[in-house]
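User: Sequence in, structure out. Go.
Assistant: Echoing your sequence, followed by the structure tokens.
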Amino acid sequence: MIFDRTVHESFLKAFPEKVGAMLDTLKGHIDKGRDSLEEDTVHDIRVWSRRLSEALSIGAILIDRKPSRSLKMLSALRTSLGRLRDNHVQRSLAIEYGIEGLPEQLEAKDERLAAQASRSLVEFDMERLERDFLHFHRELIVVCDDGNLLGRNTERISGRIEKRYSSVGKSFARSDPADFTTLHNSRISIKKLRYTLETLDGYIGLDGGTLALLKKIQDRLGKVQDLTVLLKTIGKLVNKGRLSVPVETFQRISIDRHMLVSEFLEGWRDELAVIGRFIEEPATNQYERKDKDRGNFRSGVTEKFSDGTIEKILFLASEKGLSYRGVVAYLKENPAICDRLGIEGLPSYQTLARRAGRLGKRKKTGG
């Protein structure tokens, strides 16, 4: 993360304008949604509503005043559109798993939810939101433009980031595969951290790798939640006699959900550690560590694959009892494992053997 006074000061001076641009973007999506409530539009309104809410919340800790009414308005809008979005997802999953009769029932429900969402957009008081924002914006400009408050402002922003990260760690540690509420809470916590870091991208120097990792964790837990809701929907309709689902289909959905949960539980500590290093280490140290990690001490040439990547592959080879050639082939056939381990690109087995020798981890047999 960037720990530079000049960068922070520049970001804060531009922050009020950035928040204003978010409001304008959201307004454009809402206007579009009032004309035609397509799935992409629903998605865009919810995303930009969250982004604006997070920016307002960060602004609130700087000016010591929470824009409660604006945050409640945005939350209510997301909730209304969220029901429609969830129904869209459930219908898509019902089609994917071939559950006869369910897509039609969800389509009928979709009409009612779409009408509610449209009414929410029509009734959304944009003028009130803009009036409230005008006062908030003026206060924010004064606070962000005051160089004497820079130290206080950076301290408060750091506290916001640390609180979000700590919340993720606590919720992940409480995750129970037998209690899907805990997994849902983990999804919410990682989503909040992601939006905080995205909002502060220029302040912290958010890199693509960290952002991609945040998104991957959130998407994985999101899929768990979607399948959990699908199973609950099926169960209710079956109990009411409105749906008949083969046991095999129910088991298939349960197995898919279990696999996603297993991937999360196996990888979250390592993934969270990567995010933690980004937050805690100065950006220069991160780049120096990466360069040092890839440097060949004999030739001075920068290696294409870091020591960390090589060590991950070697550990997998040892765990699976595979040769250098075998582990490379195995990873090529299983890209999901590469994603989970954070491996971007694979070395040839010859390169793997050479780097294993350099690291003092050459296999005694095979290779």
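User: And one key feature?
Assistant: The CA atoms of residues 57 and 179 lie 30 Å apart.
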